Amino acid sequence: MNLAASAADSPPPALPRVFTLRTFADRLGFEPALFSAKCFAAAVLAYWLALRIGLTRPYWAVTTSYIVAQPLAGAVLSKAVFRVAGTVLGATAAVVLVPGFVNEPAALSLALALWLGLCLYVSMLDRTPRAYVFLLAGYTASIIGFPSVENPGAIFNVAIVRVQEIVLGILCGSLIHGTILPRTVSNQLLSRIDKMIDDAERWSRQSLAGTGGEPLARERRRLAVDLGELHILSTHLPFDTARFVPRVRSVRALQDAVSMLLPLASAVEDRRLQLERLPGGLDADLQILLARTSDWLASSLEMAECHATGEALIAQSRALEPAIGPASGWGEALRLSLLARLAELIVAHLDIRDLREQIKTPIARALSDRVRLLLQQGRSRVLHRDRGIALRSALGTIATVVLGCGFWIGSGWPDGAGAVLIAGVCCALFGSSDDPAPAVFQFLWGSVIGIAIAAVYAYAIMPQLTAFPVLIAALAPTMLVLGALLARPGTQFVTLGAVLGVLNSVGLADRYTPGFQSFVNGSLAQIAGTLFAAVTVGLFQTVGAERAAERLIRAGWRDLARRSNLPGPPDAIGWTSRMLDRIGLLAPRLALRGEDPGKPLLDSLVDLRTGLAVAELRTLRLAGGTPLVTPVLKAVGRFYGSLDVRAPEAPPAALLLCIDRAMHDTACDADPERRRAGIVALVSLRRNLFPDAPALEMAQP
Hints:
mainly alpha; elongated; Methane Monooxygenase Hydroxylase, Chain G, domain 1
């Protein structure tokens, strides 16, 4: 049958009645059914247009429409933009590399392997959706370049056609997902912000009451994961299709404000518990202030009244602060620290409520001078980057491609190029995980299932079909079910392999051309390439959850050691952002080990608070505070720089002595503001590093 002629006369057909949206939704759930229906509609549109245009391999457009699919409209559009950019960059790399190594297949294979490894390395360091540009640039060059190794003269035409096919699939996917019942990023982001702020206010109230304990600490650490998800969602906002789209800079400022809640709330909780253990430490005035603050956090006041109440609470906190001097006691130092952190916590919650209002307003100008300042200070979130693991993944991918090319070229296997490019694509797609082998094996089993389904279609069903609409109706049951499974995280990798196996093998061309030998060879190449990648990633790219967790903890320690010895003003927001990102990355890895993640994450939270205390001490040093701050900072740097993640040691007694001496000296500072800031920072450092140390008498011995 001639499908191109049929497609020219027929628009994309409606789905068969048996697969109406309502029936399909009843069986699989509305959201997966809607997602699958839109995926299939985009694929049909891409196939129909590809046939009309006369593209040689329209299945590339169909496959791309599935790969670019995302439940959120803005995510689809942003991924589409990044994929187009990556496709063009990869095609350009292939056009540059292939002619430069004419008649040198080994050198060309090495060049393509190095390009793929470089792109994977850069994408793993980026850790935003923008990384998709580099990932696509890497394996698009492989898709275009490896089949052209034996025919380099046609590389330019091949590249142009592949780009056209892939871009067509991207545009069709973006059109369907972005216009038909779109789920907007904005709605998802606003809902996530409201939930995150409500949780944060509840956690803060429990901290003020001192009733949280370790269960609260575990729940509260979810804030790190929420911030990571919020960051990813915000990167899609410029591409969202909602009528009102929040501004990215407002979301960035909100991330900065929310990131301070975790260390501040935990510090308030710690100081309260310590004061309760001292005779007369938590007096009636403090209890009333804490209760009023908790009631304020639970209230739903208008913004003017909310600000007035919050500012009154801050003023009351400052009024209750004790005057620290040489004759002060440890209880007074703890009280000062509690009240100072409480005021900062109230300011943070005020900022968060203001920024939530700013995000929800369609007005471009700042709602207040404070919001304007926060927006000016807002910036992109500082993320953790592991160059060692990125380099290992890149080198593993290069080794996989080089070994595969050696077997292909040495054996003279005609379809070896297909196996090599599949192996490289698998390494690139799954290489960022700690243990990519299970995901690759799931993809392998999905490919086998997809190829088996494609064989049934190619040799039992398609020979009976006579027109384009009939072919689409025949494909609908299988592709709708696979599309719904693709929307579920638990079956995503298997289903992706099945989708690619079906679409790449079933023979979606302009006419049905049965060829059993080519079908078998192409299928074997896909299976062999995936199986080879599964073996090599286990050898070269597997890090493991335990080692990855150790690297995250060690990175935090080294960062803290480095920051302790840096001159100049500190970057407290950058430190908090990166440490919260590490905590968010650490939690799932510890869960995979089947261990209680509380203790390592609790230690990371202590490290976060220690880093903030170090930042305050560096600021104090710049303001002319006691010269004994410098020995404290150097001692903190030495301690964290020498820690072994597999055998961590307690902080040395010499560091406690340095802190105590600095506190004695700071208590005698003539400047009241420096005295206050120094005592607050040193109390925080002492409580973080030496929670079991005896009370300190502030008076000079």
